[in-house]
Backbone:
């Protein structure tokens, strides 16, 4: 075997090792499914009783964050790989994205009193969340490239739907999140088969 | 491959890092370049090597200052974490550059 052939075989070996490496988390689909339920219940509650919706978003969001952190910690101890940059980017994206969106919505409502009582403040919030989703799609998960614009458009259109507008929007977003979760699950299963 | 191509490929081969001409060592460095740290078990599974062989190859990389090893206990089990050092990253970069020129001349 010539040295060039040897190099070719070595590169194939390295390529196979890199391919075996799964970039995704084991069980990474569960946050998607949990978020779908969270969004669906919350948005239905906006139509039924907005006060309950606020409590739901706050309490379930808090519980979800704690459960998510436990899930992530357990995964980290099993994964046998440490990628601090990636973990930091994920945490910063969602924390800053959510805090920034809520903060910007509140600041807008404070600056423009007319927004406080109507549904427009909620719509702006959804559009801002849609932008956070879209950026996640640009940086990490391709399925969010569709989900983000759907959310942005939904935030605009929801004011035009006469009956149960938030339930309709919540259903669309929940379906999008469930689909994204399913795609992650399918990819994980394919990688497991390849290993 | 033509004789001129073979000659150019030989020149590319001369610029390769001798330490990284072993596929397990090259594979380990490539995998480590994309993470802060990877455990020995994970490297062994990804590279499909035996404990003894991988251990020996990683020791050579460690002796050359290309990788750093940190040992700790996780659930009472010893875990060796390997990470890439700046010298290893530089060596990998120049080795890959030499490989790239080799590939372009040899048309692998």
Residues:
């Amino acid at each position: 075997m010539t040295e060039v052939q040897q190099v070719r075989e070595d590169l194939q070996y390295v390529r196979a090792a890199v391919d075996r490496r799964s970039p995704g988390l084991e069980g990474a689909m569960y946050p998607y499914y949990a978020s779908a339920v969270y969004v669906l219940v919350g948005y239905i509650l906006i139509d039924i009783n907005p006060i309950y919706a606020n409590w739901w978003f706050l309490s379930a969001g808090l519980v979800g964050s704690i459960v998510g952190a436990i899930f992530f910690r357990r995964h980290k101890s099993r994964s046998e790989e440490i990628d601090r940059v990636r973990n930091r980017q994920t945490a910063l994206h969602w924390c800053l994205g959510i805090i920034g969106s809520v903060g910007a919505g509140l600041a807008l409502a404070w600056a423009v009193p007319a927004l406080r009582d109507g549904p427009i403040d909620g719509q702006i919030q959804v559009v801002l969340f849609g932008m956070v989703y879209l950026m996640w799609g640009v940086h990490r998960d391709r399925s969010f490239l569709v989900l983000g614009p759907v959310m942005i458009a939904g935030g605009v259109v929801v004011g035009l739907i006469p009956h149960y507008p938030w339930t309709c929007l919540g259903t669309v977003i929940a379906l999008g999140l469930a689909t994204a979760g399913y795609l992650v699950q399918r990819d994980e299963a394919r990688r497991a088969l390849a290993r | 491959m033509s004789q001129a191509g073979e000659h150019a490929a030989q020149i590319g081969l001369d610029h390769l890092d001798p330490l990284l001409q072993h596929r397990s060592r090259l594979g380990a460095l490539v995998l480590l370049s994309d993470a802060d740290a990877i455990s020995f078990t994970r490297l062994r599974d990804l590279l499909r090597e035996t404990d003894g062989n991988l251990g020996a190859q990683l020791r050579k990389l460690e002796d050359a200052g290309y990788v750093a090893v940190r040992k700790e206990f996780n659930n009472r089990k010893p875990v060796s974490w390997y990470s890439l050092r700046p010298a290893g990253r530089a060596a990998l970069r120049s080795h890959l550059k030499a490989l790239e020129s080799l590939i372009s001349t040899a048309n692998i």
